[in-house]
Amino acid sequence: MTRLRFASWNVNSLKVRLPQVLDWLALSGADALVMQETKMTDDVFPAAAFNAAGFDVVFTGQKTYNGVALAVKRSVLRAPEVVELGLPGYPDAQKRFVSALLTPVAGDDPIRFCGGYFPNGQEVGSNKYLYKLDWISVLTRHLKALLAENPRLILGGDFNIAPADADVWNPAAWEGRILCSAPERAALSRLLSLGLCDSFRLFEQPAATFSWWDYRQSGFEKNHGLRIDLLLVSDALAGAVRNAAVDARPRANAQPSDHAPVTVDLEY
Q: What domains lie within the chain, and their CATH numbers?
């Protein structure tokens, strides 16, 4: 029996949050973690710190903005193979996508684990909003190709889209706004129609469970949040999902990320 825990976390600067990330990896039992907003160039990425903690890591980043990484527990999973840093064929200086084939040390079939930092979009109708929709369209086409190669796939990340009103603390106030607009949700639906499902919604979940809270106006303390950090699993893996959750505890840290890590557990 193989048991694996996959996770995603927008860390909002590894320079600031590295100790928190390493502590969480030690406590959470995560076997593979995709990170977003690492906000550092590759030459200063703290690969040695992850290696010392027992994780192999692949990454692509830039100064101040964006940046993604994938950390893999060496005792459970082999080193990442067939690594992708960026969406193939998409001319984009922003570092937003990482993926790799991960094979359990026990020798089971590999799983393609992808991590994405979806554009925020800034404001509905803006150029950045159009870029967001275009980026998701390119991602959707690429994932279709990846699924054709290997139907065992997980996509985690900061999607910057709340899938439904249940994922929003005040749906009326957020209606039609960025992160909740109809075109964004339609783009997510097209992504899901490839044969993916939101692992969190495979289970009955507590109401008002969110993964992001604004630093301003005591958003976390009031639980005025959104669930925009997701782990999508392919149909080929959905039957192996045993649990999916948001771990809000790190959001209560001193100098926290404004996002909480999310996890999905597989058993097969």
A: 3-267 (3.60.10.10)
| Residue 250, burial from CB neighbour count under 10 angstroms (0-12, 13-18, 19+) | buried
Calculate the average pLDDT of the chain: 98
Q: What's the pLDDT at 107?
A: 85
Q: What is the mean pLDDT of residues 9-27?
A: 98
From the list 117, 129, 229, 265, the catalytic residue is 117
**Catalytic residue among 31, 56, 129, 158, which?**
158
CA distance 65 to 167: 26
Say if residue 204's pLDDT is above 90. yes
Q: Model pTM?
A: 0.98
| 158 is an active site residue | yes
- Residue 215 falls in the annotated catalytic set: no
